[in-house]
Hints:
Layout: E1 5-7, H1 20-27, E2 41-43, H2 50-55, E3 71-73, H3 93-97, H4 101-107, H5 113-136, H6 146-158, H7 168-192, E4 203-205
Antiparallel strand pairs: 1-4, 2-3
Helix pairs in contact: 5-7
Amino acid sequence: MGATHLCAVQNCPGPYPVTAADASDLCLTCGLCCDGTLFGDVELQAGDDRARLRALGLPVIRSRSGRRPSRWLQPCPALGAGCRCAIYRERPLHCREFDCALLQSVKAGALEIADARRTIRQTRRRVETVKRLLRELGDTQEHDSLAKRFRRTRRRFENQELAEAPDREERLDQLAALTMAVHELQFALRLAFYPDPGDGPGQYCP
Length: 206
């Protein structure tokens, strides 16, 4: 696939018809919106039953100040094998309503399923690279989002915990590699899955 970009909806032709089943199957190969890659937490909405979601196993957190909605942290504990949601029929409203830019493009017929799957595979490889580098630097807390783990690892250097280790030079090289891998992942996510609002409306097209 050649260079990729975001293009406005009206400039994206839709020559690739897709079924609802195809779109659903695409999500089952991805999971980036649930596994702590795309988001660090998800906020509940007014129509969500907080008590019921807690009973289903979501660790809902209430804001101490009351200034922000209740939320639960990512990775979502309901995410199971094969990217299947254990509480799919009772999932929160945000989960029901969210479609990433890649899925929107597929549904609009602007992107072939094969190209979308390729983008997902490439992005998941970037995720695995970030996870590997985090583990090499001592962060094995897979229950936290990637962004939180990266901030924590960087803070360990800022606090001199890793910068003063006997293998300091190797650690610094690993941090540089991690920082680059995180930057490349964030760019890929913004390009194909979750554009910044400042980019304007658009769909992902090859």
